[in-house]
Structure formats: structure tokens, C-alpha cells
Write a structure and sequence with these properties.
The chain is an alpha+beta fold. The protein contains eight helices and 23 strands. It starts with 6 loop residues before the first strand and ends in a 7-residue tail after the last strand. The protein has three domains: 67 residues, Uridine Diphospho-n-acetylenolpyruvylglucosamine Reductase, domain 2; 151 residues, Uridine Diphospho-n-acetylenolpyruvylglucosamine Reductase, domain 3; 112 residues, Uridine Diphospho-n-acetylenolpyruvylglucosamine Reductase, domain 1 (Alpha-Beta Complex), CATH 3.90.78.10. Strands 6, 7, 8, 11, 12 and 13 form a six-stranded antiparallel beta sheet that branches. A hairpin with a 2-residue loop joins strand 6 and strand 7.
Length: 360
């Protein structure tokens, strides 16, 4: 098909930050909306399943690979325009997310500085409602441009139409396979103050004697914190081959939070009386990392070639040669251990392809 070069047997592990998984039966790059539409039609005409791939930073691919077409969606380009006191930044889905953050920060545009050094592409940000250190992209996204595979049309969805929630959206939920993200527009504030809300970030800045941080200060601080936790892509770091945080911080009721704390006290878990908790809507957000450690899973714990990072209990890493089965087995053991200890079921954050953690 014109505009679409389809290859067979392409290795997928090198296209993901975790580095596991088998090959794609068919693979094609789509660098514009026309190629996306052609790819969707190509797979449908052959009765093949379709997998949309972006930066591969949130993907766990089965060892058997993918039996259909993997469409690597990589539209490029960043455009900016003034809109009153604001700047609108429109970026293609295939643009590096951190390239956009670096440019915004350098230009003095506030709104995404706490999201520095997050791997992956722009197109993934509305799907996950990407967030870190007290900031979420749903705060700045104005519109999402996408190809609707159901109606075969290009659509523009406003922020309110995206169903954003904590690490979720309609693109991850009810319409998970319907839309292919093509571009995203963000609303940023020139000369705006940086968002310094998160305790770790406040502490890091205070330790460096920075009382009135600039956007650049906050970006640098976030990068330093993430690097310390091996959450920055670095080939020289044996803990960096991961999907970042593997589990989402659970949001529970006040009653459940009180029960978790009571269990921790009964277990004589370290710091039980000061269990981290944050109010979120009608519930309470708990720390998945804290729960994992108190359930007995320490940094460095290993299962085959998959392990918990030496530097962060939420990161599951590929020590070299890990299989998807090993990663999933480790994740399942952690999830089940936390549920047994505290009665809370952790939800995995990455996308699983042809592999599953099983019943939750």
C-alpha cells in the first residue's frame, strides 16, 4: 500500500525500554496521518490484530511476540502560537516528550517542568494522563488529535472529552482500541511559577538552598531525583532498563487506609505510624512503594533475570536477558504479596501485550 512499508519478523524488544518480548509478525512505521489510516486499513483487510506502538516506555510484550501488525506511530513536529497570556504548543505524537519539556522550560513556559526526563513520546501522555512530582498533563492539555478507527475519521477531542483521571483516560479505558493519537496541544504559561508541590521535590530544592526556584531549577531537581532512582534512561545504569513505575499508587477509602495502617502496626512495619497518605477526591492515595517494601519485597529482589531495582521498589528491571514471563512472574508475586499483607490489590501501570498478570 502506498505510503506504508510493511516488514515481517521485526524484533520488538529493542523498541521498548524494558527490552523484553518477541518479534512482530508485521511491522510498519507511520510518520503521518495518512500512513496511520493506511496501516489500520491494511490490518483490517487481512483480519489481523493491530498494535499501536509509540516510544515503548510503558510496554510489556509477550515472549511470543505479536501475531498481527505493529504500527509504529511517529508523526513529528512542534508548533507554537500565542493565545493571549498563554502559549499553545502543538506536538506530533512521535515527538520525544522530554524534548518538548526541555524546550518549554528553556523558553520560560510553565506547566510541564515537573514532568522532566520521563521517557516516551508525546502521544502517550494523554493515554496515561502522565504525571509526576505533583503535576499531570491533564492540567495543560487543551486538545488531542486522533484517528478514529471506528468511524475512519480524524477527530479533535477537547480536554473535557478525554475522561482524564488518576493515570487514566478514555484512551486507556472504554475507548482503549478506538483512537490512534496523532498530535496533542498543551496550554503553557510564559513567565509562570514552577509547580513545587511534591515533598521530595521541596526537600531536594531546600537541601540545595534554592528558596525561590526557577523553572530550570525545578527541571534540574526532577532530573536529579529521577536519576538517583534510576528513572532516567541511561545505558550505563543496570537499573534503568524498565518501564518506570510498574504499579500505580492505589486510591482507597478512608476505612481501607485505616485498616492498612492497623495491619502495618500489627506487623511492626517500619514507619507504620507515619504511613504515607494523600487525600484524593473522596478517597486516599497510598504509596505503592511503601506497601511493597512493608510486604517484604526489598530493592534488588530477583526472579531469574528480572528484579526490583536497587534504587526504587516500584521499578521492575531487566538485568539482561530477562523474559516477559520472568517480569510477569515477579510482578504477580509482588501484587499477591501486597494483597495478602494489606488487603490492597495493586494495579499495574504498563500495557501488557499477549501476556497478563492474571486475575486481580
Amino acid at each position: 500500500m502506498a505510503g506504508l512499508a510493511v516488514q515481517e519478523g521485526v524484533a520488538l524488544a529493542p523498541l521498548s525500554t524494558l527490552g523484553v518480548g518477541g518479534p512482530a509478525r508485521f511491522y510498519a512505521r507511520a510518520e503521518d496521518s495518512g500512513a496511520v489510516e493506511a496501516g489500520v486499513a491494511w490490518a483490517e483487510a487481512r483480519g489481523l490484530p493491530l498494535l499501536i506502538l509509540g516510544g515503548g516506555s510503558n510496554l510489556v510484550m509477550a515472549d511470543e511476540g505479536y501475531p498481527g501488525l505493529v504500527l509504529h506511530v511517529l508523526p513529528q513536529g512542534i508548533e507554537t502560537r500565542r493565545d493571549g497570556d498563554e502559549v499553545r504548543v502543538r506536538a506530533g505524537a512521535g515527538e520525544s516528550w522530554d524534548t518538548l519539556v526541555a524546550a518549554a522550560t528553556a523558553n520560560g513556559w510553565a506547566g510541564v517542568e515537573c514532568l522532566s526526563a520521563i521517557p516516551g513520546c508525546v502521544g502517550a501522555t494523554p493515554i496515561q494522563n502522565v504525571g509526576a512530582y505533583g503535576q499531570d498533563v491533564s492540567e495543560t492539555i487543551t486538545t488531542v488529535e486522533a484517528f478514529d478507527t471506528q468511524d475512519r475519521t480524524q477527530v479533535t477531542l477537547e480536554n473535557a472529552d478525554c475522561g482524564f483521571g488518576y493515570r487514566s483516560s478514555r484512551f486507556k479505558g472504554k475507548d482503549r482500541h478506538r483512537y490512534v493519537i496523532l498530535a496533542v496541544e498543551y496550554r503553557l504559561m510564559p513567565g509562570g511559577l514552577p509547580a513545587v508541590r511534591y515533598p521530595d521535590l521541596k526537600r531536594h530544592l531546600a537541601e540545595r538552598g534554592i528558596g525561590a526556584p526557577t523553572l530550570g531549577d525545578v527541571r534540574q531537581a526532577v532530573i536529579e531525583i529521577r536519576r538517583r532512582k534510576s528513572m532516567v534512561l541511561d545505558p550505563a545504569d543496570p537499573n534503568a532498563r524498565s518501564v518506570g513505575s510498574f504499579f500505580v499508587n492505589p486510591v482507597v477509602s478512608d476505612e481501607t487506609a485505616a485498616d492498612v495502617q492497623a495491619r502495618a502496626v500489627e506487623m511492626r512495619a517500619a514507619g507504620a505510624e507515619a504511613m504515607p497518605r494523600w487525600p484524593v477526591g473522596d478517597g486516599v492515595k497510598l504509596s505503592a512503594a511503601w506497601l511493597i517494601e512493608r510486604a517484604g519485597f526489598r530493592c534488588g529482589y530477583r526472579k531469574g533475570n528480572a528484579a526490583i531495582s536497587d534504587n526504587h521498589p516500584l521499578a521492575l528491571v531487566n538485568r539482561g536477558g530477562a523474559t516477559a514471563r520472568e517480569v510477569v512472574a515477579l510482578a504477580r508475586e509482588i501484587r499477591d504479596g501486597v494483597r495478602e499483607a494489606f488487603g490492597v490489590s495493586l494495579v499495574a501501570e504498563p500495557v501488557f501485550v499477549n501476556v497478563s498478570l492474571g486475575e486481580t
